[in-house]
Specification:
- This protein has 416 residues and is an alpha+beta fold.
- Helix content is 29%, strand content 25%.
- It contains 10 helices and 21 strands.
- Strands 1, 2, 3, 4, 12, 13, 16, 17, 19, 20 and 21 form an 11-stranded mixed β-sheet that branches. Strands 5-6-7-10-11 form a 5-stranded mixed β-sheet.
- β10, α7 (231-244) and β11 (252-255) form a beta-alpha-beta unit.
- α6 crosses α7.
- The longest helix is centred in the first third of the chain and has 25 residues, at 2-26.
- The chain is globular and about 100 Å long.
- The chain starts with a helix and ends with a helix.
- 41% of the residues are buried.
- The model is unreliable at 15-25 (pLDDT under 50).
């Protein structure tokens, strides 16, 4: 009887330990943006979402810029000239009134030169690249073109052509792109007077600026997140995630070259993870976060993720050409290594975690994994009383639109 009782107690103890471990693992729910990615079958497709030509302030013609990206092996390119919608690579969009308006603010002259129909067909079919074609991301444009800092990119919807931007106004663009069914991001968000470098090397970001962007993320699903160009962009990214992740709202970080010349063509890009290279698949990747953001340091091998596995309370990343994998939450590196145990690092967790894969040739960022668990930090929603003064006054420019459209229509007829 004593032996039977001892065995029963041992089994009960083991069951209790197992139950405690299972509860600890199940306590944290992970939302994985790569859940539907088949890593054994999907091919990473290189996409450039922000580039310029001589149609605005770039140094390459559209044809030269596209040839540069084609030679670099890109699968998708969005031509995003300031205030001028990309409506085709063989017949680039050109509006006379835009040229006149642009020249009021810039000494650089606009020059339009697209691809020939034959060369467009060759690029689409992948001639010289073993059939790996390069596709156009439709309706690329960078908004707020007369201003020096506050810019936005949008794609997939024909809105914003020749519409002048308003200084520090994001709201008008995001609102309209959301209504029309497109996608939009905030470009180079650190290029603003609201972010300042302090004497000790740290950065100060005005609370107003954070709320300004956060309010738009709360209201409009079309706003994917922010562009990653400077280190301060990552600081802002983590601040927005800390505030919004507890509510279930993800914020994606997109690496782009913002290329204006030959040297900047292949510096930053995204790897979109998809079964077949189609524009529809690219859009789905951007909407769901099934992409990676890459930054080139030099021409050595670039790091690449080959698998992401989420099991219980752990996330494991398998990668090549890398030296370190860092895990970031609440803006701090909380662990390093291929596998992250959320339970073991729970004391340092926020409502999200993301990974940075460092290599000799560059770095790679995953999109955030959202977390849900008892006792996690609460978010900080924007108060209802918050007023975006920049957006309000910037939207007053709407009264100029009818005049601009009439001028454009008259001028376009004369130009034809």
């Amino acid at each position: 009887m004593k032996r039977l009782l001892a065995a029963a107690l041992a089994l009960a103890l083991l069951a209790a330990i197992f139950a405690i471990g299972a509860c600890a693992a199940e306590d944290i729910v992970i939302t994985n943006p790569y859940e539907n990615v088949d890593w054994s079958e999907y091919t990473p497709r290189r996409a450039q979402l922000h580039t310029h030509t001589t149609a605005s302030d770039g140094k390459q013609t559209m044809a030269e810029a596209l040839e540069s990206y084609y030679g670099a092996g890109y699968d998708f390119v969005a031509v995003t000239d300031h205030g001028l919608m990309d409506r085709g690579w063989a017949k680039p969009n050109y509006r006379p009134v835009f040229k006149a308006f642009w020249n009021l603010f810039s000494k650089k002259k606009i020059h339009i030169q697209g691809l020939s129909e034959e060369r467009l067909r060759e690029m689409t079919e992948g001639v010289g690249r073993d059939g790996r074609g390069m596709l156009r991301v439709p309706f690329g444009i960078e908004h707020n073109h007369p201003t020096k800092k506050m810019h936005l990119n949008s794609w997939f919807v024909d809105w914003g052509n020749v519409i002048p931007g308003g200084d520090r106004d994001y709201a008008a663009v995001v609102r309209n792109i959301d209504r029309k069914g497109g996608l939009v991001q905030i470009n180079h968000p650190s290029d603003t007077r609201y972010i300042r470098e302090l004497d000790d090397g740290a950065w100060s970001i005005d609370d107003y600026y954070i709320k300004k962007i956060q309010r738009l993320l709360e209201k409009y699903p079309a706003l994917l997140g922010i562009e990653l160009k400077a280190e301060t962009d990552r600081v802002l990214w983590d601040m927005l995630l800390s505030n919004l992740a507890p509510t279930g709202r993800n914020v994606f970080g997109t690496a782009t070259s913002d290329s204006h010349n030959w040297d900047s063509v292949d510096t930053r890009w995204v790897w979109a993870l998809m079964p077949e290279p189609t524009v529809e698949n690219l859009r789905e990747c951007l909407e769901t976060g099934a992409f990676l953001s890459a930054v080139r340091i030099d021409d050595r091998e670039q790091p690449m993720i080959t698998n992401i596995a989420v099991q219980g309370d752990t996330i494991t990343i398998t990668a090549e050409h890398h030296s370190e994998i860092r895990w970031v939450s609440n803006g701090e590196v909380i662990a390093a290594g291929e596998t992250l145990s959320l339970t073991e690092n729970k004391a340092k967790l926020g409502a999200y975690v993301r990974a940075e894969i460092a290599g000799e040739g560059g770095t790679l960022c995953t999109q955030p994994f959202l977390l849900s668990y008892e006792g996690m930090p609460e978010g900080s929603p924007v108060p209802r009383k918050f007023i975006d003064y920049d957006g309000f006054f910037g939207s007053l420019r709407m009264i100029l639109y009818p005049f601009i459209w009439v001028m454009d229509a008259i001028w376009a007829q004369r130009w034809k």
